[in-house]
User: Which sequence fits this backbone?
C-alpha cells in the first residue's frame, strides 16, 4: 500500500539521519496509526534523548503507554495536523477517502503549507496570520563570527539590494549552516527569520513530501514559485541532509530522489531567474549532502556553527533556567565550566537539575529551588553529545577537504586541540 511505502521510506531516511526530529515524530505518528505502539514508544525514547522535554513527543509517548497498558489510546490532541505531518492528517481522519484523493491529486492542497509556507494556494490573509518569530540576532548569545558572516552574505544584501548590485553581489543562491548537533543552527535561523519578518519561509521536509506520484516535485516547484513572486525572501530548509542525501544512496526512496532532482532544477539559476531568492539550509553533515546541491548557484557557501562560546553558553543557561525556581546559581561560573557542551547538552543539564530539585521537593513536601548542587550533580552525569560528530568531522577535514570547503572547520578543530 502506498502509505506503507511512506513509512518504509521514512524509516530508511531516519536510519541515515537519526537526529532529524521532525522525521522521527512523523514515523511515531505513522506507527501509532498502525497500532505498533511498542515500536512507536522506542522511537519516542530516542526522540526524547535528542530533545528532552519535547511536548509533542511526550504527548505521543503518553498515547503509546496508555494503549500498551490496555487503555484506548488518547486521540490526537488536535484535529489540525502538526506542521508537515501528513501522518497526523490521516490519523485524524480514519475514514479518509484515499481513492477520491488520488483522483484529485493535481488539486491537493497540503494543509501543512498554511503553517509555514504560503504557497500559491494560500491567500494573503492566511499569509498574514503566519506566526512570525520575535527572536532577533541580538538574542543569540555570542557566536559573533557566525552573526557577522550572516550579516555580510545574507542580511546585508537583502536589506540593500541596490548597494549589493553596485558591488557586484546579490541576494541569490544558497547558504548552508553546518556544525555539530544541538549548537544553534535552527535557533540562529529563527533569529534570521525574526530579522526578516514576512520574507522568511521555513520549509519542513515533511511539508514537501507527499505520497502521491509527482506531488512532492510539484510542492517544491510551488514553494519556489511563491518565493520568486515574493522576492526578496529567504527559504529556510532545515535538516537538509535528510533531503539532499547523495542520490546514489537513495535507491530505496524514489520520492526523495525526485525531490532532490526538483530542488536542483529550482535552485539552478540557468533555468530559473532566482534574483532575490535566497535559500538558507542547515545540516549536521554537509558531506552527506548531494554534491550537486553544493555547486555554484546552489548551496555554494557554508557557515560553520561550532560549539557555543562563553557568551552563548551564558545565554543558553539563562534561557533554560528562566522560568524555573532557582537560588544561588552563578551563571557566569557555570558557563565557564561547561566548555565543550552543546546547547542541547546544556538544556539537558538544566532539565536534569530541575528534576533533582523537584524529586527532593516531592519527598519533603516543600518547594526547594534548583541550586548549584543540583546543577553540579547533573553535570557529573552528562558527557558531551557531540563526540561522534567531531570524530567524523576530523576524518572529513583530513581526507575529504581537497577543495578547501572545510577550511573553517579545519581551523576550528585546530583551535579546539590547542585549548
Ligand atoms: N547562541 C545561542 N544563544 C541562545 N540559545 C542557544 C544558542 N545556541 C543554541 N541555543 C539553544 O540550544 C538549543 C539547541 O539549538 P538548536 O536546536 O538550534 O541546535 P541545532 O544546531 O539546530 O541542532 P540540530 O543539529 O540537532 O538540529 C536550543 O534550545 C537553543 O535554544
Ligand atoms: Mg536544528
Assistant:
Amino acid at each position: 500500500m502506498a502509505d506503507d511505502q511512506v513509512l518504509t521510506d521514512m524509516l530508511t531516511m531516519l536510519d541515515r539521519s537519526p537526529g532529524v526530529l521532525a522525521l522521527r515524530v512523523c514515523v511515531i505518528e505513522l506507527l501509532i496509526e498502525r497500532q505498533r505502539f511498542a515500536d512507536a514508544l522506542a522511537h519516542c525514547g530516542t526522540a526524547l534523548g535528542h530533545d528532552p522535554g519535547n511536548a509533542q513527543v511526550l504527548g505521543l509517548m503518553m498515547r503509546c503507554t496508555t494503549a500498551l497498558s490496555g487503555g484506548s489510546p488518547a486521540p490526537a490532541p488536535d484535529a489540525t495536523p502538526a506542521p508537515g505531518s501528513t501522518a497526523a492528517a490521516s490519523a485524524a481522519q480514519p475514514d479518509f477517502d484515499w481513492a477520491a484523493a488520488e483522483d484529485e491529486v493535481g488539486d491537493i492542497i497540503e494543509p501543512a503549507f498554511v503553517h509555514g509556507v504560503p504557497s500559491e494556494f494560500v491567500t494573503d490573509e492566511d499569509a498574514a496570520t503566519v506566526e512570525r518569530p520575535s527572536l532577533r540576532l541580538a538574542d543569540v548569545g555570542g557566536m559573533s563570527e557566525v552573526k557577522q558572516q550572516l550579516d555580510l552574505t545574507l542580511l546585508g544584501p537583502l536589506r540593500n539590494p541596490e548597494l549589493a548590485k553596485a558591488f557586484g553581489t546579490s541576494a541569490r543562491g544558497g547558504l548552508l549552516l553546518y556544525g555539530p548537533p544541538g549548537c544553534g543552527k535552527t535557533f540562529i535561523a529563527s533569529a534570521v527569520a525574526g530579522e526578516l519578518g514576512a520574507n522568511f519561509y521555513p520549509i519542513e521536509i515533511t511539508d514537501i513530501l507527499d505520497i502521491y506520484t509527482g506531488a512532492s516535485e510539484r510542492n517544491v516547484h510551488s514553494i519556489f514559485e511563491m518565493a520568486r513572486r515574493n522576492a526578496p525572501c529567504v527559504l529556510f530548509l532545515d535538516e537538509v541532509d535528510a533531503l539532499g542525501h547523495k542520490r546514489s544512496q537513495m535507491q530505496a526512496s524514489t520520492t526523495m530522489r525526485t525531490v532532490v532532482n526538483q530542488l536542483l532544477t529550482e535552485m539552478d539559476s540557468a533555468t530559473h531567474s532566482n534574483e532575490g531568492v535566497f535559500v538558507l539550509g542547515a545540516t549536521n553533515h554537509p558531506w552527506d549532502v548531494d554534491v550537486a546541491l553544493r555547486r555554484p548557484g546552489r548551496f555554494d557557501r557554508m557557515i560553520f556553527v561550532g560549539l557555543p562560546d562563553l557568551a552563548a553558553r551564558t545565554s543558553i543557561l539563562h534561557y533554560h533556567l528562566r522560568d524555573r525556581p532557582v537560588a544561588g546559581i552563578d551563571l557566569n561560573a557555570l558557563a565557564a565550566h561547561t566548555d565543550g557542551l552543546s546547547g542541547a547538552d546544556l538544556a539537558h543539564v538544566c532539565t536534569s537539575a530541575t528534576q533533582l530539585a523537584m524529586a527532593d521537593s516531592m519527598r519533603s513536601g516543600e518547594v526547594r529551588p534548583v541550586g548549584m548542587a543540583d546543577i553540579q550533580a547533573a553535570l557529573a552525569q552528562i558527557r558531551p553529545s557531540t563526540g561522534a560528530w567531531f570524530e567524523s568531522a576530523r576524518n572529513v577535514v583530513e581526507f575529504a577537504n581537497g577543495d578547501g570547503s572545510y577550511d573553517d572547520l579545519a581551523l576550528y578543530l585546530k583551535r579546539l586541540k590547542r585549548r
